[in-house]
Amino acid sequence: MKSSTIRVALVGNPNTGKSTLFNDLAGLHQRVGNYPGVTVEKKTGHYQHAGFTFEVIDLPGTYSLAPRSPDEMVAVDVLLGRRAGESAPDIVLLIVDATNLQRNFYLVSQVLSCGLPTVVALNMVDIAQERGIEIDVKKLAAKLGTPVVAIQANRGQGIPELKAALLSASQSTPAKSENPFPAEFIDQALGLSSRLDSNLKLPLPLFLVERLILDGNGYLEDQLLPINAHAEREYLQSVRQSLSQHGFPIPAGEAMARYAWVGRTLEDVVRTPTERRLTLSDRIDAVLVHKLWGTLVLLAVMALLFSSIFQFAEPAMSWVDSGVGWIADVVGSQLAPGALRSLLVDGVIGGVGAVVIFLPQILILFAFIAFLEDSGYMARAAYLMDRLMAGVGLSGRSFIPLLSSFACAVPGIMSARVIENYRDRLVTMLIAPLMSCSARLPVYVILISAFVPSHHYLGGIVGLQGLTLLAMYLVGIFAAVGVAWVLKRTLLRGETPSFVMELPSYKMPSLRTVLFRMAERGWDFLYCAGTLIFSITIIVWALAYYPRSDSLVAETIAGQREQLAAEIAAAAPDSSARNSLLNKLEEFDQQANLTQLEGSLHQQYSFLGRAGRLIEPVVRPLGWDWRIGCAVIASFPAREVVMGVLGVIYNLGTDWDVSVESDQSQLRDRLKSARWDNSGEKVYNLPVALSLMVFFALCAQCAATLSVIRRETNTWRWPLFTFAYMTGLAYVAALLTYQVASRIWV
Amino acid sequence: MISLETLSVGQTAKVLRFAGGGDITQRLLEMGVTPGVDIRLVGSAPLGDPLEFEVRGYRLCLRRSEAKKIEIQT
Ligand SMILES: Nc1nc2c(ncn2[C@@H]2O[C@H](COP(=O)(O)OP(=O)(O)OP(=O)(O)O)[C@@H](O)[C@H]2O)c(=O)[nH]1
């Protein structure tokens, strides 16, 4: 015994109940982190048993230990103790699906080759029994030379026995397992091993030496052998050739040898009913992947996903919103006006609010996605949609992530983890923000209701306003298709990824696992996106607040008042013009209006206002004035902010609320009457509104999305790329929209 | 040569060999589609592609283009 902590690596095929077992063992004592340099999650947990601490390391679900990418290499490195500062685990806990033993045992065979003490957890015994599969557990344990424990992870059955088996395994030496390969291969592997050791001073574990021979795709060779080891590479090639000539082809040899071992191991241990029975899963599938019913169910699931967002997330979001507003009021009323109050109220509380406001949506979507994954439906949705997605060079696996992005790109991007192929996953994450998320909706709604005429066609069934809204969604979808097409042919070119996917049998998801997954990802989001959104919000706040000059604002107000007074003096006495000017002055002097004007002027004189003027020449061709430019810059942290900023600019004050109908119509009126500073012409007309909407449909004004892309790709390169390409695309599209539309309508 | 793609629904065949290689072949081998194994076509997705198979007691789906590269014997 090395120490009182016993390290257990949890390994298994996908869909075997690995997460469920991990939660059974570790309960709430779990932590999620990242392995440096790769995108694999590092999930660990611990529990106490018989005076020892057992640390459980959850490795990503896999069908095989043949690494083809840095992500897949993680599992091998952990098992062999090759990660810096980490020794090999004391025990491997291998979870297998009792209803699917043949394929699961391929991984068993590979894990046994690693030579570590191993315990096999035979899961899903309830379903196996239902299907009439009989397994002689004792005999299996004897043949494998490892303990085998039957469990039912979703009910927590067999867990005490499993813990006992882990304890005793940690105190005994592993039995030597049978090598499944022919003598020829074993000799060659031993030869290669001593050769690498003596020629290159490279003492590799035998498992890796074997893998070097078996994995002809070159990945492992490049990882393990020095670049200049030409002689060894050639030697390796000759070993493969000679084995092929002796009836052990590469790569099929490994699979044939291991599956032959699986056959020998299971032949007198498992009895499967000979006649093919229609399982429950088959009966469900008869509907869910049926040509007609399957499609209808998929549509219904999609509809449910969205209505759940509106049904449950919207109310929760407005609670969050009013809660944040309440805190801001309380804090605001305790402090004197000034920089500190503004920093706390508009900066800090606003910043926290901007992060937390996303949570209800994200949690609901994650719960939904976790349910789809754990029930087995996710794979069906991918299967049904693959043909369609293949059209843009993606696979069916991208469907749910992209679909969720219509609600919010954050969970969409995070759920892209199910996509095995790295290039596909990346393309999916890069185009996900083009789907029109719910944060864009208020922008569309206000602009459309203010500037798009409400014509109706076909007897009132379709309206122009509705069509415009639809067009905005389509703009995003078409752009996404185009971008995916281009990326797949340029930056992310490569072999068409395969769509070799298991369709797991249906299972009733456990509420606990679904909640765990939801909480885990929600926390992940808060943690990774929170800091970034928060700091950007503070920066934008500072830009809009400083340099504060009360005297400049007071001067401007006094100037405006003087001008008004001068006009009154010049007007003919008792004329109606004079009366209306007098009314105007009275209105001007009202305290509420003065406060709003002050706010607007401060905004104009701030760094942000100056930046808006600075970029005016750039946004002018889009039909925008500097105020819109300002609002676009200010809405960098979150696009829904844009309407709020416009509200401040157009003197609606800072208490203005987009979600309140009367405030909305106030903003509409202000927008409609806004005029250019120099010419006095109206700023907003249909072309300007369209160009602004198209810009927001395509731009990347969302710090949360960008930080989640950074989290999932482990580099700043891709979020920066996303920001650059989307902003470029949005600019060009808005430019085209304005230039074309203004020639048609004006 | 007869390819897996030509199987009709419900029909079972034996896998003979793979045309071409690459990662897809390796993945298929790992998932139990080895020479000599029985494989049955269960059905196809509504748009005709991909295809659903039963092999070694579980369900696996493959695109037609992938199934084309697997040689079978009926
Ligand atoms: N009937 C039954 N269902 C189980 C059992 N163990 C787990 N499940 C269910 O199987 C489904 C998949 O379990 P997960 O723990 O998510 O499986 P996983 O291996 O972690 O899957 P991935 O996360 O996709 O790799 C869930 O719906 C579980 O509730 C079991 O012993 N019996």
What's this entry about, in short?
Chain A is built from 33 helices and 12 strands. Chain A has 746 residues and is α/β, with parallel strands linked by helices.
Strand tally of chain A: 12
Low-confidence stretches of chain B: none
Shape of chain A: elongated
Q: Encode the helix/strand succession of chain B as letters.
A: EEHEEEHE
Instruction: Estimate the helix proportion of chain A, in percent.
Output: 55-70%
The overall number of domains of chain B is: 1
Q: Into how many domains do the coordinates of chain A divide?
A: 4
The span between the termini of chain B is 11 Å
Order of the strands making up the biggest sheet of chain B: 1-6-2-3-4-5
User: What composes the largest sheet of chain A?
Assistant: 7 strands, mixed
| Uncertain parts of chain A | none
Structural class of chain A: alpha/beta
The coarse overall form of chain B would be globular
Number of DSSP helical runs of chain B = 2
Q: What amount of the residues of chain A lies in strands?
A: 5-15%
List cofactors, ions and other ligands: guanosine-5'-triphosphate
User: Approximately how much helix is present in the residues of chain B?
Assistant: 10-25%
CATH superfamily of chain B: Ferrous iron transport protein A (FeoA)
- Strand arrangement within the widest β-sheet of chain A reads 2-3-4-1-5-6-8
Please give a structural write-up.
- With 746 residues, chain A is an alpha/beta fold.
- Chain A has 4 domains: 5-170, Rossmann fold; 183-247, no CATH class; 293-489, no CATH class; 533-744, no CATH class.
- Chain A is 62% helix and 7% strand.
- In chain A, the strands form 3 sheets. In chain A, strands 2-3-4-1-5-6-8 form a 7-stranded mixed β-sheet, sandwiched between helices. In chain A, strands 7-9 form a two-stranded antiparallel ribbon. In chain A, strands 10-11 form a two-stranded antiparallel sheet.
- The termini of chain A are far apart.
- Chain B is of the alpha+beta class and 74 residues long.
- A 6-stranded antiparallel β-sheet of chain B has the order 1-6-2-3-4-5.
- In chain B, a hairpin with a 2-residue loop joins strand 4 and strand 5 (58-62).
- Chain B is globular.
- The mean pLDDT of chain B is 90.
- The A-B interface holds A 63-64, 66, 68, 99-103, 106, 216-217, 251-252, 254-256, 259, 272, 289-292, 294-295, 383-384, 386-388, 390, 396, 495-496, 498-505 and B 17-18, 21-32, 34-37, 43, 45-50, 52, 56-63, 65-66.
- Strand 12 of chain A pairs antiparallel with strand 5 of chain B.
- The structure holds guanosine-5'-triphosphate.
